Amino acid sequence: MSVPHVGKIMQAHPDCTLIHCYGPTENTTFSSCYTVKEEDLAHQPLPIGRPINGTQMVIVGPDLHLCPIGVAGELCLGGVGLAMGYLNRPTLTAEQFIPDPFSAVPGARLYRSGDLARILPSGLIEFVGRIDHQVKIRGFRIELAEIEVELTRHAQVREAVVLARLDTPGSKRLAAYVVAEPNTTLTSEILKQFLTKTLPSYMIPLAFVVLDELPLTANGKVDRDVLPAPAWGRISAAAEFVAPSTERENIIARLWQEVLGGEAPGVTDNFFENGGDSLSATRLISRIRRACDVELPLRVLFDTPTIREVATAVNDEDDREEFEI
After folding, report:
1. CATH superfamily, domain at 3-131
2. Alpha-carbon distances of 126 from 20, 30, 147, rounded to whole Å
3. How far is the C-alpha of 28 from the C-alpha of 30, rounded, in Å?
């Protein structure tokens, strides 16, 4: 539920009580509810509350073990409101409606919602997103909804959607689409610095696109398929751009751009902060070896991930090989 819209409703109808409810069709009608308070408007997203009477809600990992407080997992539902299954679809029913491993009641079942949620320290449940929006980038499994939640915690962000998109070289990278609050200015650097406080580097989007509004389908959901392709630029675009100044730096910059695509890199840009991973690092080092005719270890790029530092390492390696001869 959109916090700004909730705020407008509460302002227009101060005598009304607003209740935030959650519940899939498979566990009709509502599974949890939460009475919204004015202080909730300072936080995003709104919690979906606690289970209603006769309903059980658990959050589990892929192995069906309970997730600790604060850790996102799949939200599973049980109780008297649970459906018998899907009509004439026994296979899907068996996949989604499973025996309840946490219940001592014979025949108790759980519905695997496919929704991502977590239990807050207060005991309230927070809806995060859909599990089918999970992607794997740079060897890490990433829940796109978790990035979206963190983005909406920024005071100037009204809405946010994160996608995994292919860039020019064909690598999958994260792109964030945000709608800013009125009369505010958002930049990639502001959002990157904000996310860096709570998320690991591999979950920081490479591109940020600020939109007037998010496109919606006929059902009122975000139409992710029509979101515009981002410009894969330098993630540190707000920082000072330092152009290559030596022959070696120019060679490495050209090879970098061939591997990662996007704008021309500066010599102080970080390879991994700009979309590099272990595979693209291997490709870049291989090209540097051929172009500069040196035996450069792969670890050089991991230890010193800027063009200036790699160029220095190439020069040092070149001098060492000449000395040995």
Report:
1. Luciferase; Domain 3 (2.30.38.10)
2. 11, 15, 14
3. 6
Mapped onto helix, strand or coil, the DSSP state of residue 201 is: helix
For 313, phi then psi, to 5°, come to: -65, -40
Report the CATH architecture of 139-226: 2-Layer Sandwich (3.30)
* Residue 107 DSSP one-character state: T
CA distances from 131 to 13, 65, 127, 142, 324 (A): 35, 16, 11, 10, 56
Mark out the alpha helices in the chain (DSSP H runs).
3-12, 90-96, 144-152, 188-196, 247-260, 278-292, 299-303, 307-324
Q: What confidence tens digit (pLDDT) does each residue in 32-70 have?
A: 999 999 888 877 788 999 999 999 999 999 899 999 999
Q: What is the pLDDT of residues 74-86, one digit of tens each?
A: 999 999 999 999 9
Find out whether 267 and 247 touch, Cβ atoms under 8 Å. Answer: no
Side chain identity, residue 222:
V
User: Cis omega before residue 198 (within 30°)?
Assistant: no
Would you kindly state where each structural domain of the chain is located, as residue ranges?
3-131, 139-226, 247-324
CATH number for the domain running over 247-324: 1.10.1200.10
Whether omega for the bond prior to residue 297 falls within 30 degrees of 0, making it cis, is no
Count CA atoms within 13 Å of residue 5 on its CB side.
Answer: 6
For 229-238, letters b (16+ CB in 10 Å) and e give ebebebbbbe
